[in-house]
Design goal:
The complex is a heterodimer. Chain A is of the alpha+beta class. Chain A contains seven helices and seven strands. Chain A has a three-stranded antiparallel β-sheet. Chain A has a two-stranded antiparallel sheet with strand order 2-3. In chain A, strands 6-7 form a two-stranded antiparallel ribbon. In chain A, a hairpin with a 2-residue loop joins strand 6 and strand 7. In chain A, about 55% of the residues lie in helices and about 15% in strands. In chain A, helix 4 packs parallel to helix 7 and helix 5 packs antiparallel against helix 7. Chain B is mainly alpha-helical. Chain B has a domain of about 130 residues. In chain B, helix 3 packs across helix 5. The radius of gyration of chain B is 21 Å and the shape is elongated. At the A-B interface, helix 1, helix 4, helix 7 and strand 7 of A face helix 2, helix 4 and helix 6 of B.
Chain lengths: ~250, ~180
């Protein structure tokens, strides 16, 4: 029989505290410019990883309401106006067909009057939903989880890093899917199995799935950090008392 | 004597899984979640599970709204109350939470069939009731405080639903899963 939380009160208190902390953190983030800052930092990271990873395509992640948006192509720096009314999305991804761009540059070199046309494709993303909101969720759960400070810290670091890696992987699949569907970009040649995999992973962007997967990551973290002793899951702070066998 | 490495590994794995029923349980629930999400991308799921469930929720919600004096029209999974119109889309139907909760209860080892059935029925009833409350609250929010709709829809109810499912499962595990007659 598995060992479990010792009372209903413990369970309700744990989830109650986690909900309160989660909403408190959300409130603080919404009242301050922290959200934009977090999204901007994530976009810097995404740009450093994914900018040149796609074949014959350059990708730019821009925080939608950033007033200093621009992207550099070869020696040209192209400004983009800030976007308002971006809905639930916080990031604009701009894909530039570099193959087409280099051909245009060649034509420009041959004919100075040649008008440069950049073939690009734009799409939208919510980095906040993919990465930051799940991290706040696992942070709240980990802080309120009964146990030692060391275990809580391990939980926070482990689950946050896992969510970050999953988020980066999701973003990569979204980029590949955009590349598969965008007509102006260089076609990506993949077999049907990989196409289906990409479509499946990129399709799992619903807010419900993001929350559930984050919760599952957190549960896995708890299970990894919790010792199994004779089929028992230890939730309690104190280790189980040794059973004394009398002769 | 003469046992090769692969058969030793298989015996080892068999030992781990037969001794660690809980480990098998966790892997089983994990696999179920993965398979559920794979299935949820299919047309069969949309046509025969998601759409009828959404339609049922919109029908029940519309009946309640009509009963309490808010004339409501339904068009498949869309609810229209005056100027407010919301549709119950995938992810707002609580199917995933209900499925994961049911799988977690049903797969638990060493619990009697009767205890499991009790857990499933009570849990599903609470989740269905909570989902109707969620839909009604979103309708009213859309009428009276539309600026709070996104917060209520995304930040509030999603987290409440996951915590509700998880806490109900733990309470069942704590008090009822191994309860005798």
């Amino acid at each position: 029989m598995p060992m479990h939380p010792n009372s209903n009160k413990t369970i309700l208190l744990f989830f109650g505290k986690s909900v309160v902390l989660y909403f408190l953190l959300l409130l603080i983030i919404r009242m301050t410019p922290l959200k934009e800052h977090f999204v901007l930092q994530m976009n810097h990271l995404l740009n450093s990883i994914y900018s040149d990873i796609l074949p014959k395509t350059k990708v730019f992640f821009h925080t939608a309401n950033n007033t200093k948006r621009s992207f550099a192509l070869d020696r040209a720096v192209l400004p983009c106006p800030p976007l308002s009314h971006f809905g639930e999305f916080d990031t604009q991804t701009i894909f530039v067909n570099t193959n087409h761009f280099s051909k245009q540059l060649e034509n420009r070199n041959n004919d100075p009057n040649f008008k440069l046309v950049i073939q690009n494709y734009k799409s939208r993303l919510s980095i906040w939903d993919i990465v930051w909101m799940p991290i706040i969720l696992v942070f709240s759960l980990s802080v309120c989880f009964p146990g030692s400070m060391k275990r809580r810290l391990k939980l926070i670091v482990g689950t946050s890093l896992t969510i970050l890696i999953i988020g980066l992987f999701r973003c990569y699949c979204i980029l590949l899917l955009e590349l598969l569907n965008a007509p102006v970009l260089e076609p990506l040649i993949l077999n049907n199995f990989f196409k289906n995999c990409i479509q499946f992973i990129a399709g799992l962007q619903g807010i419900e799935f993001i929350y559930i997967s984050s919760f599952v990551v957190w549960v896995i973290g708890v299970l990894i950090l919790t010792p199994f002793i004779n089929n028992r899951l230890i939730w309690n702070i104190n280790p189980p008392k040794k059973v004394l066998h009398h002769a | 004597m003469g046992q090769n490495k692969s058969s030793i590994a298989l015996v080892g794995a068999h030992d781990v899984f037969t001794k660690n029923k809980m480990l098998v349980y966790y892997i089983g629930v994990g696999l179920f979640i993965l398979l559920y999400y794979l299935f949820s991308t299919t047309q069969i799921y949309t046509q025969y599970i998601q759409f009828p469930v959404a339609k049922l929720f919109s029908f029940i919600s519309a009946q309640i709204l009509n009963f309490i004096g808010f004339p409501t029209l339904i068009d498949d999974n869309q609810l229209t109350t005056g100027v407010s119109s919301i549709s119950i889309a995938k992810g707002c139907d609580a199917i995933a939470v209900m499925m994961i909760y049911t799988a977690s209860v049903v797969m638990l080892p060493n619990s009697s069939f009767k205890n499991k059935m009790q857990g499933v029925w009570i849990g599903l009833a609470v989740l269905i009731f909570a989902n109707i409350i969620r839909i009604l609250s979103l309708v009213f929010c859309n009428i009276y405080r539309p600026e709070l709709f996104e917060f209520l829809h995304i930040d509030f109810w999603q987290i409440i639903f996951i915590f509700l499912g998880a806490s109900m499962f733990l309470i069942w595990l704590n008090k009822y899963a191994y309860a005798s007659k």
